[in-house]
Amino acid sequence: MALHKLQVDDFYDDSYKLIALHCNLEDYRLAYLLNKTLGLQLSRKTEDLDFKYLESSYSLFEWKNHSEYVTWNLVSNICKREENSLASTGTLFQNNQKVIRTFNLISEYKTVNFFIKISEEIQNINEKVILNTLQSIPQIITSYSVNPLKLKSKNHLIF
């Protein structure tokens, strides 16, 4: 009797496009500009994307376009948290200093502020047109396409 082994990775074939955005805007302002410029209807999800037991959380906006079978997601890549610094014991004075720690959703792209994830069932989205439209927004410094298959932390983009 022959044994058959199935590879679990073969079943996960989610096709999506990933666009990196560099900008200094707040997440809600960027979502507004994307809605206005690209004709989207992004809205903030009730819960943020949390990792490592609430150590870091990332804002998440989503719009499901049911007529074109496309789901748009805008997710922040940078999370900054204020924490107490570790102080050595036995000092004369109490020194409670705050330290700001920075976490990244996709650690390979530490300078990227936001990612746009476009999940589509039918391949009808022209990525070059979207990139050209994003470049026309003056508040966005730059935008470019990222190959999600080459990311080490691509599992963070499953939501």
Automatic annotation (TrEMBL):
InterPro entries to which the protein is assigned, alphabetical: IPExxxVDY_fam
Protein name: IPExxxVDY family protein
Lineage of source species: Bacteria, Pseudomonadati, Bacteroidota, Flavobacteriia, Flavobacteriales
